[in-house]
Write a structure and sequence with these properties.
The chain is built from 12 helices and 11 strands. By secondary structure, the protein is α/β, with parallel strands linked by helices. The protein has a 9-stranded mixed sheet with strand order 3-2-4-7-1-8-11-10-9, sandwiched between helices. Helix 6 packs across helix 9. The longest helix is centred in the first third of the chain and has 16 residues. The radius of gyration is 19 Å and the shape is globular. The model has no long low-confidence stretch (mean pLDDT about 95).
Length: about 400
């Protein structure tokens, strides 16, 4: 029996992101992986664990082969946007138990370029079998599901469309500080509200951007930290949860599975939501940010609208900076964006974010962060608490 070991994130990186018309998804995987290993200062020969999803027939076998890896521990869990927080939890458990010494998580997608080149359509179908057969024939698209949930919250708690718009406005304000964000020009609540309607109550700016891009995260056992060029960011606790597939089986449209994954992650980390200094939250739509803030315990149920309208999510002057890179609403969103949340959280804790760097009252970087991913239409959630020192 191997004693459980502490686990640290020692390498993070993004591939080229935004508008990338001349690369394949495999190339973006490789670029992000190389950069993450270089960030850590470790050789790929140390990597004996590999996790990937969303590419190839036999993910992660195909991607590992492309990268020249022969892992002895693999994970191909695929639960949409929460995939990477769930994978990080699995990887941390494997490393802690001695089943792997270094696990590389990698993602890459040319979602935007594929649409432009006609390789895929703008609307990705999730199929019509199983529970979906009762919804798809009636035009119940993914965005329609999120719109229904948002409308339920508005009816139940009096949340306003202006409050939801504030999420987009503040995400763009953070993106303005990020030179790598796709959209950096400030926007107003009125501009969000006056945009073209996509799915009532969501106008265009309530919805995430479509981009290309990849990301990679390297986790290692504590014994390898001394060999790294970066300071370790420790995995303190994690949680995962699933809720439903069919909307008819979702007990409450105003409660996401983050209510469970967040509670588990905070309990296992031994910290309270009030101690978190930076939050990276999946934001395919503005409502996702608002309801996840509630479910993670940053405010009470039904209080999300009032919480976000006071500018609390901003890097500059915000009480709880959220999606500090601009999030999926403004920075980049190449599909299953959960891995990007982990990259940004680690960079914030290491103090590497330049103009968008969050700082404590004494000028030092934050010491506690949370990354929470959402998959499907609030079908799944993974939450990871990270810390330094």
């Amino acid at each position: 029996m191997v004693a459980r070991r502490k686990v640290a994130v020692v390498g993070v990186a993004l591939s080229d992101c935004g508008r990338v018309d001349d690369a394949t998804p495999y190339a973006l995987h490789a670029q992000a992986a190389r950069r993450a290993l270089a960030d850590a200062g470790l050789d790929r020969s140390l990597v004996d664990g590999f996790a990937s999803a969303g590419l190839g027939t036999l993910a992660p076998v195909e991607v590992a082969e492309y990268l020249g890896l022969r892992p002895t521990w693999v994970d191909s869990t695929s639960v949409g946007g929460s995939t990477w927080e769930v994978m990080a939890a699995h990887a941390a458990d494997a490393v802690a138990a001695g089943h792997a010494r270094a696990v590389l998580l990698v993602y890459g997608s040319t979602a935007r370029a594929d649409v432009r080149a006609g390789r895929r359509t703008g609307t990705l179908s999730f199929g019509t079998r199983g529970p979906m057969q009762f919804e798809v024939p009636y035009g119940h698209t993914l965005i329609a599901k999120y719109a229904m949930a948002a409308r339920r919250h508005m009816i139940e708690y009096g949340t306003t469309i202006e409050q939801l718009a504030e999420v987009a406005v503040q995400a763009r304000a953070n993106a303005a500080l990020n030179p790598e964000a796709m959209f950096r020009t400030p926007i107003t609540v009125d501009e969000v509200l006056s945009g073209p309607m996509i799915a009532d109550p969501f106008t265009k700016l309530h919805c995430c951007v479509r981009s290309d891009g990849g990301a990679a995260v390297l986790l290692v056992a504590e014994g390898y930290v001394r060999d790294c060029r970066t300071s370790p960011v420790w995995v303190l606790g994690s949680g995962e949860s699933v809720s439903h597939a069919a909307m008819s089986e979702w007990p409450d449209f105003t409660v996401s599975p983050a209510a469970v994954s967040g509670r588990l992650a905070f309990e296992r980390a031994g910290v309270r939501p009030a101690e978190i200094e930076v939050a990276e939250i999946y934001d395919a739509f503005t409502y996702m940010t608002l309801v996840t803030l509630e479910d993670l315990g940053f405010c009470g149920k039904g209080e999300g609208g009032a919480f976000v309208e006071k500018g609390r999510l901003r890097v500059e002057g915000g009480e709880l900076p959220v999606n500090t890179d601009g999030g999926g609403l403004s920075a980049q969103h190449p599909g299953m964006r959960g891995l990007f949340l982990l990259v940004e959280a680690v960079r914030q804790l290491r103090g590497e974010c330049g103009q968008r760097q969050v700082r404590r009252a004494d000028g030092t970087p934050p010491r506690l962060a949370v990354a929470s991913g959402t998959g499907g239409w609030f079908c799944s959630s993974g939450t990871v608490v990270l810390g330094v020192g």
